[in-house]
What we know:
With 342 residues, the chain is α/β, with parallel strands linked by helices. Helix content is 34%, strand content 17%. Residues 92-174 form the UvrD-like helicase ATP-binding domain.
Amino acid sequence: xxxxxxxxxxxxxxxxxxxxxxxxxxxxxxxxxxxxxxxxxxxxxxxxxxxxxxxxxxxxxxxxxxxxxxxxxxxxxxxxxxxxxxxxxxxxxxxxxxxxxxxxxxxxxxxxxxxxxxxxxxxxxxxxxxxxxxxxxxxxxxxxxxxxxxxxxxxxxxxxxxxxxxxxxxxxxxxxxxxxxxxxxxxxxxxxxxxxxxxxxxxxxxxxxxxxxxxxxxxxxxxxxxxxxxxxxxxxxxxxxxxxxxxxxxxxxxxxxxxxxxxxxxxxxxxxxxxxxxxxxxxxxxxxxxxxxxxxxxxxxxxxxxxxxxxxxxxxxxxxxxxxxxxxxxxxxxxxxxxxxx
Length: 342
């Protein structure tokens, strides 16, 4: 059996790599967290085969937990009516109480679903069920597994099948499960993070997906030097990055619908072609990109120490910058306040 985790960089072809491993013989299950990647996988598979073959199943992570795991294995014992996406952080109930896992509307708390699987003793059955229906398991965006879900990942990695996990450590912008201090320091150190996967019996691959097809050398150089995140380019063409200092330049960028504006948050408050830094993860259709920075981030840019930003902010900024295929612009949000919806 081939069990591995591939640590990739942004735009290195994670989706393409997975799709290239698929054929019409082996039964494959592909799990991904973001809707962007779910759609990209479906589109890519359809392009390769002309349709979605019956032996290939793409599921979002929570669809897998609820419909593939919970419903067939626990619904006959436990009444549930979907998922509550607001994490239960209460310590009032014990882990053996129904209220610890399920709210008053019979919805499973999203951050404790896999903990519930452990408490009810069905983890082995889940592995057996996955092996019964599939020969290969791919998990995309593995860097976003946290809390109880990372413990669940350790269990499913023991399933008797080929397993390939793919992710970019530095694109960790969200935890699938947060519950107190459960795996709270998981992403604090890259080397220790890798060691977790070695302990699962997975081989570590840090070379296959180390070059970006999306970002050209100039953008990769900026990310490597300014953010301290090593990334190489598969491209040879050139582009530039600019800082915006004039109001008329900011206005031109705001009104240019060929250039996406990526805000730290609240992008919907601006009537322009836009997205948020973290939410742009998985997007692969932008060309020129304008990064809108709040006062703190802009100060880090001016002082040439973006690498000292808090990791959560730096990772989101890395996601945003690495959407760039062409030119890259940085602008302070103060220049866009006039365009914000009142």
